[in-house]
Amino acid sequence: MESNEKVPYVLTGKSHTAVAVNAAAKAGEWIKSRLGAYGRLSTKSSEQDLVTEIDKGAEQMIRRLILTHFPDHAILGEEGVEPGEDAPERALREAEEEEYLWIIDPIDGTTNFVHGFPFYSVSIALAKNGEVVLGVIYDPSRDEMFVAEKNKGAYVHGARMNVSGEQRLSEGLIAVGFPADPAVKLPINLRGIEALAPKARSLRAGGSAALHLANVAAGRLSGYCEVGLNVWDVAAGALLVAESGGQVTDTAGTPYHLGVRHIAATNGALHTELLNVLKEADATGF
Ligand code: 2AM
Ligand code: CA
Protein backbone atom coordinates (compact mmCIF):
# COMPACT_ATOMS: atom_id res chain seq x y z
CA MET A 1 0.00 0.00 0.00
CA GLU A 2 1.11 3.54 -0.72
CA SER A 3 2.52 5.04 2.49
CA ASN A 4 1.89 8.63 1.46
CA GLU A 5 -1.91 8.21 1.53
CA LYS A 6 -3.42 11.30 3.17
CA VAL A 7 -5.18 10.83 6.49
CA PRO A 8 -8.02 13.36 6.82
CA TYR A 9 -7.36 15.93 9.55
CA VAL A 10 -9.98 15.74 12.27
CA LEU A 11 -10.16 18.62 14.73
CA THR A 12 -11.03 16.93 18.00
CA GLY A 13 -12.45 19.36 20.54
CA LYS A 14 -11.51 19.19 24.19
CA SER A 15 -14.23 17.94 26.52
CA HIS A 16 -16.05 20.37 28.80
CA THR A 17 -14.53 18.59 31.78
CA ALA A 18 -10.96 18.81 30.48
CA VAL A 19 -11.35 22.53 29.87
CA ALA A 20 -12.86 23.14 33.33
CA VAL A 21 -10.13 21.15 35.09
CA ASN A 22 -7.42 22.93 33.13
CA ALA A 23 -8.89 26.36 33.85
CA ALA A 24 -9.33 25.63 37.57
CA ALA A 25 -5.78 24.30 37.88
CA LYS A 26 -4.20 27.23 36.02
CA ALA A 27 -6.19 29.87 37.90
CA GLY A 28 -5.62 28.09 41.22
CA GLU A 29 -1.87 27.91 40.77
CA TRP A 30 -1.71 31.57 39.86
CA ILE A 31 -3.89 32.58 42.82
CA LYS A 32 -1.71 30.59 45.22
CA SER A 33 1.43 32.24 43.83
CA ARG A 34 -0.09 35.63 44.67
CA LEU A 35 -0.99 34.74 48.27
CA GLY A 36 0.03 37.64 50.47
CA ALA A 37 1.16 39.65 47.43
CA TYR A 38 -2.04 41.33 46.34
CA GLY A 39 -2.04 45.11 46.05
CA ARG A 40 -5.18 47.12 46.62
CA LEU A 41 -8.07 45.69 48.62
CA SER A 42 -11.58 46.84 47.72
CA THR A 43 -14.95 46.16 49.32
CA LYS A 44 -18.20 45.33 47.52
CA SER A 45 -21.64 45.11 49.15
CA SER A 46 -20.39 45.62 52.72
CA GLU A 47 -17.17 46.16 54.62
CA GLN A 48 -16.87 42.41 55.06
CA ASP A 49 -17.32 41.74 51.32
CA LEU A 50 -13.78 41.86 49.95
CA VAL A 51 -12.38 41.69 46.44
CA THR A 52 -8.81 41.88 45.17
CA GLU A 53 -7.41 42.30 41.69
CA ILE A 54 -6.49 38.61 41.99
CA ASP A 55 -10.22 37.69 41.93
CA LYS A 56 -10.65 39.77 38.79
CA GLY A 57 -7.50 38.47 37.11
CA ALA A 58 -8.37 34.84 37.85
CA GLU A 59 -11.86 35.28 36.43
CA GLN A 60 -10.41 36.80 33.24
CA MET A 61 -8.02 33.87 32.92
CA ILE A 62 -10.84 31.33 33.30
CA ARG A 63 -13.15 33.21 30.92
CA ARG A 64 -10.47 33.30 28.22
CA LEU A 65 -9.69 29.62 28.53
CA ILE A 66 -13.37 28.65 28.29
CA LEU A 67 -14.07 30.95 25.35
CA THR A 68 -11.03 29.64 23.49
CA HIS A 69 -12.70 26.23 23.31
CA PHE A 70 -16.39 27.20 23.44
CA PRO A 71 -16.72 30.70 21.95
CA ASP A 72 -20.53 30.62 21.85
CA HIS A 73 -21.10 29.55 25.47
CA ALA A 74 -22.45 32.02 28.06
CA ILE A 75 -20.47 32.80 31.21
CA LEU A 76 -21.72 34.06 34.57
CA GLY A 77 -18.88 35.01 36.89
CA GLU A 78 -18.86 36.58 40.33
CA GLU A 79 -16.63 39.45 39.24
CA GLY A 80 -18.72 40.15 36.12
CA VAL A 81 -21.81 40.99 38.16
CA GLU A 82 -22.49 44.20 40.06
CA PRO A 83 -22.71 43.71 43.83
CA GLY A 84 -26.09 44.05 45.51
CA GLU A 85 -29.25 42.03 45.72
CA ASP A 86 -30.83 42.42 42.29
CA ALA A 87 -27.98 42.16 39.81
CA PRO A 88 -27.00 38.51 40.51
CA GLU A 89 -30.67 37.44 40.23
CA ARG A 90 -31.12 39.33 36.98
CA ALA A 91 -27.88 37.96 35.53
CA LEU A 92 -28.94 34.42 36.44
CA ARG A 93 -32.39 34.80 34.89
CA GLU A 94 -30.88 36.02 31.64
CA ALA A 95 -28.19 33.35 31.66
CA GLU A 96 -30.59 30.50 32.45
CA GLU A 97 -31.98 30.84 28.95
CA GLU A 98 -28.63 29.82 27.47
CA GLU A 99 -28.10 26.24 26.36
CA TYR A 100 -24.62 26.20 27.91
CA LEU A 101 -23.86 28.45 30.86
CA TRP A 102 -20.55 28.41 32.75
CA ILE A 103 -20.79 29.61 36.35
CA ILE A 104 -17.50 30.81 37.83
CA ASP A 105 -16.28 31.80 41.27
CA PRO A 106 -12.60 32.64 40.71
CA ILE A 107 -11.85 32.72 44.45
CA ASP A 108 -14.44 31.35 46.84
CA GLY A 109 -13.18 32.40 50.25
CA THR A 110 -11.65 35.75 49.31
CA THR A 111 -11.49 36.83 52.96
CA ASN A 112 -9.37 33.78 53.77
CA PHE A 113 -7.17 34.49 50.75
CA VAL A 114 -6.63 38.07 51.90
CA HIS A 115 -5.61 36.91 55.37
CA GLY A 116 -3.48 34.02 54.11
CA PHE A 117 -5.75 31.42 55.75
CA PRO A 118 -5.42 28.34 53.50
CA PHE A 119 -9.10 27.63 52.84
CA TYR A 120 -10.17 29.09 49.51
CA SER A 121 -10.97 27.56 46.13
CA VAL A 122 -11.73 28.02 42.46
CA SER A 123 -15.24 26.89 41.54
CA ILE A 124 -16.40 26.23 37.97
CA ALA A 125 -19.77 24.73 37.01
CA LEU A 126 -21.40 24.13 33.65
CA ALA A 127 -25.20 24.20 33.36
CA LYS A 128 -26.98 22.79 30.34
CA ASN A 129 -30.46 24.19 29.81
CA GLY A 130 -30.53 25.38 33.43
CA GLU A 131 -29.27 22.16 35.06
CA VAL A 132 -25.75 21.69 36.42
CA VAL A 133 -24.02 18.89 34.48
CA LEU A 134 -20.39 19.50 35.49
CA GLY A 135 -18.79 20.75 38.69
CA VAL A 136 -15.09 21.37 39.31
CA ILE A 137 -13.62 22.77 42.53
CA TYR A 138 -9.88 23.20 43.02
CA ASP A 139 -8.27 23.66 46.44
CA PRO A 140 -4.81 25.13 45.74
CA SER A 141 -3.67 24.82 49.37
CA ARG A 142 -4.01 21.04 49.33
CA ASP A 143 -3.67 20.63 45.56
CA GLU A 144 -7.00 18.80 45.43
CA MET A 145 -9.08 18.78 42.26
CA PHE A 146 -12.71 17.77 42.84
CA VAL A 147 -14.66 16.83 39.71
CA ALA A 148 -18.25 15.67 39.18
CA GLU A 149 -20.16 14.92 36.01
CA LYS A 150 -23.92 14.45 36.11
CA ASN A 151 -24.78 10.74 36.51
CA LYS A 152 -21.09 9.77 36.38
CA GLY A 153 -20.05 10.22 40.00
CA ALA A 154 -17.66 12.55 41.76
CA TYR A 155 -13.90 12.18 42.05
CA VAL A 156 -10.95 13.75 43.82
CA HIS A 157 -7.73 13.19 41.91
CA GLY A 158 -9.26 10.20 40.19
CA ALA A 159 -10.60 8.48 43.35
CA ARG A 160 -14.35 8.11 43.65
CA MET A 161 -15.86 10.13 46.50
CA ASN A 162 -18.60 9.05 48.88
CA VAL A 163 -20.37 11.03 51.59
CA SER A 164 -19.86 10.07 55.23
CA GLY A 165 -21.91 7.51 57.14
CA GLU A 166 -23.04 9.35 60.29
CA GLN A 167 -26.69 8.64 60.92
CA ARG A 168 -27.52 11.32 63.47
CA LEU A 169 -26.79 15.01 63.89
CA SER A 170 -25.18 14.22 67.27
CA GLU A 171 -22.48 12.28 65.38
CA GLY A 172 -22.09 14.90 62.68
CA LEU A 173 -19.43 17.51 61.92
CA ILE A 174 -21.43 20.35 60.36
CA ALA A 175 -20.11 23.40 58.51
CA VAL A 176 -21.87 26.76 58.74
CA GLY A 177 -21.13 30.28 57.53
CA PHE A 178 -20.80 33.86 58.72
CA PRO A 179 -22.08 35.82 55.71
CA ALA A 180 -20.79 39.24 54.71
CA ASP A 181 -24.20 40.87 55.18
CA PRO A 182 -24.32 41.84 58.87
CA ALA A 183 -27.82 43.33 58.74
CA VAL A 184 -30.00 40.54 57.38
CA LYS A 185 -28.21 37.28 56.57
CA LEU A 186 -25.81 37.13 59.51
CA PRO A 187 -28.54 37.16 62.20
CA ILE A 188 -30.42 34.35 60.42
CA ASN A 189 -27.28 32.22 60.21
CA LEU A 190 -26.47 32.96 63.86
CA ARG A 191 -29.88 31.62 64.93
CA GLY A 192 -29.09 28.40 63.06
CA ILE A 193 -25.61 28.19 64.59
CA GLU A 194 -27.00 28.65 68.10
CA ALA A 195 -29.56 25.90 67.55
CA LEU A 196 -27.16 23.47 65.85
CA ALA A 197 -24.17 23.84 68.18
CA PRO A 198 -25.58 21.85 71.13
CA LYS A 199 -27.06 19.18 68.82
CA ALA A 200 -24.18 18.40 66.44
CA ARG A 201 -20.85 16.81 67.38
CA SER A 202 -19.26 20.11 66.43
CA LEU A 203 -19.55 23.03 64.01
CA ARG A 204 -16.97 24.49 61.64
CA ALA A 205 -17.01 27.72 59.65
CA GLY A 206 -14.24 27.55 57.06
CA GLY A 207 -15.29 30.55 54.98
CA SER A 208 -15.61 28.95 51.54
CA ALA A 209 -19.02 27.57 50.58
CA ALA A 210 -17.54 25.69 47.63
CA LEU A 211 -14.88 23.97 49.76
CA HIS A 212 -17.42 23.10 52.45
CA LEU A 213 -19.49 21.36 49.77
CA ALA A 214 -16.45 19.59 48.30
CA ASN A 215 -15.61 18.32 51.78
CA VAL A 216 -19.16 17.09 52.36
CA ALA A 217 -18.82 15.21 49.05
CA ALA A 218 -15.49 13.73 50.23
CA GLY A 219 -17.07 12.49 53.47
CA ARG A 220 -14.97 14.78 55.68
CA LEU A 221 -17.92 16.90 56.78
CA SER A 222 -21.35 15.38 57.50
CA GLY A 223 -23.22 18.45 56.31
CA TYR A 224 -23.20 22.14 55.57
CA CYS A 225 -25.84 24.85 55.66
CA GLU A 226 -25.77 28.57 55.01
CA VAL A 227 -28.33 31.25 54.18
CA GLY A 228 -27.76 34.03 51.63
CA LEU A 229 -25.28 32.64 49.10
CA ASN A 230 -24.97 33.24 45.38
CA VAL A 231 -25.23 30.76 42.50
CA TRP A 232 -21.45 30.75 41.87
CA ASP A 233 -20.72 29.81 45.50
CA VAL A 234 -22.68 26.55 45.31
CA ALA A 235 -23.40 25.39 41.72
CA ALA A 236 -20.32 23.15 41.34
CA GLY A 237 -20.39 21.94 44.94
CA ALA A 238 -24.05 20.97 44.80
CA LEU A 239 -23.31 18.52 41.97
CA LEU A 240 -20.26 17.16 43.83
CA VAL A 241 -22.41 16.33 46.88
CA ALA A 242 -25.26 14.84 44.84
CA GLU A 243 -22.88 12.68 42.79
CA SER A 244 -21.19 11.47 46.00
CA GLY A 245 -24.49 10.11 47.27
CA GLY A 246 -25.48 13.07 49.44
CA GLN A 247 -28.56 15.28 49.50
CA VAL A 248 -28.72 18.95 48.45
CA THR A 249 -31.77 21.11 48.99
CA ASP A 250 -32.61 24.64 50.02
CA THR A 251 -33.11 25.09 53.77
CA ALA A 252 -36.85 24.40 53.33
CA GLY A 253 -36.21 21.03 51.65
CA THR A 254 -36.76 21.88 47.96
CA PRO A 255 -34.27 19.95 45.78
CA TYR A 256 -31.31 22.01 44.53
CA HIS A 257 -31.75 24.16 41.43
CA LEU A 258 -29.79 27.16 40.15
CA GLY A 259 -31.97 29.62 42.07
CA VAL A 260 -31.13 28.21 45.53
CA ARG A 261 -29.55 30.80 47.84
CA HIS A 262 -30.15 29.15 51.23
CA ILE A 263 -28.42 25.81 51.03
CA ALA A 264 -28.40 22.57 53.02
CA ALA A 265 -26.13 19.76 51.84
CA THR A 266 -25.55 16.59 53.85
CA ASN A 267 -24.70 12.91 53.65
CA GLY A 268 -28.47 12.35 53.33
CA ALA A 269 -28.87 10.41 56.57
CA LEU A 270 -29.07 13.46 58.82
CA HIS A 271 -30.65 15.83 56.31
CA THR A 272 -34.16 15.89 57.76
CA GLU A 273 -32.83 16.30 61.29
CA LEU A 274 -30.72 19.27 60.19
CA LEU A 275 -33.62 20.93 58.34
CA ASN A 276 -35.89 20.46 61.36
CA VAL A 277 -33.42 22.22 63.65
CA LEU A 278 -33.20 25.18 61.23
CA LYS A 279 -36.98 25.35 60.93
CA GLU A 280 -37.54 25.30 64.70
CA ALA A 281 -34.94 28.06 65.13
CA ASP A 282 -36.54 30.22 62.39
CA ALA A 283 -33.18 30.02 60.59
CA THR A 284 -34.15 28.89 57.09
CA GLY A 285 -34.12 32.40 55.61
CA PHE A 286 -37.67 31.89 54.25
P1 2AM B 1 -16.65 34.63 48.36
O1 2AM B 1 -15.41 34.43 49.13
O2 2AM B 1 -16.55 34.18 46.94
O3 2AM B 1 -17.19 36.02 48.47
C1 2AM B 1 -18.72 32.50 53.40
O4 2AM B 1 -19.77 32.63 54.29
C2 2AM B 1 -19.22 32.31 51.99
O5 2AM B 1 -20.07 33.40 51.64
C3 2AM B 1 -18.12 32.28 50.96
O6 2AM B 1 -18.38 31.24 50.08
C4 2AM B 1 -18.18 33.65 50.31
O7 2AM B 1 -17.77 33.64 48.95
C5 2AM B 1 -19.65 33.92 50.37
N1 2AM B 1 -19.97 35.35 50.29
C6 2AM B 1 -19.23 36.40 50.69
N2 2AM B 1 -19.84 37.57 50.45
C7 2AM B 1 -21.02 37.26 49.90
C8 2AM B 1 -22.13 38.03 49.42
N3 2AM B 1 -22.14 39.37 49.49
N4 2AM B 1 -23.18 37.38 48.90
C9 2AM B 1 -23.18 36.04 48.85
N5 2AM B 1 -22.17 35.26 49.27
C10 2AM B 1 -21.10 35.85 49.78
CA1 CA C 1 -15.51 34.91 45.06
Structure, briefly:
With 286 residues, the chain is α+β, with helices and mostly antiparallel strands. The chain has helices spanning 16-33, 53-69, 86-96, 110-115, 185-196, 209-217, 231-243, 271-280; strands at residues 41-43, 50-52, 74-77, 100-108, 121-128, 131-139, 144-149, 153-156, 159-160, 173-175, 202-204, 223-226, 247-250, 263-266. It binds adenosine-2'-monophosphate and calcium ion.
* Poorly predicted runs of 5 or more residues: none
Please list the strands of the largest sheet in the order they lie side by side. 3-4-5-6-7-8-9
Mean pLDDT: 92
Report the total helices: 8
Small molecules bound in the structure, each named once: adenosine-2'-monophosphate, calcium ion
Alpha-carbon distance between the two ends: 73 Å
CATH superfamily of the largest domain, called what? Fructose-1,6-Bisphosphatase, subunit A, domain 1
Q: What is the string of helix and strand elements?
A: HEEHEHEHEEEEEEHEHEHEEH
Shape label: globular
Strand content: 15-25%
Q: Helical percent range?
A: 25-40%
> How many E-type strands?
14
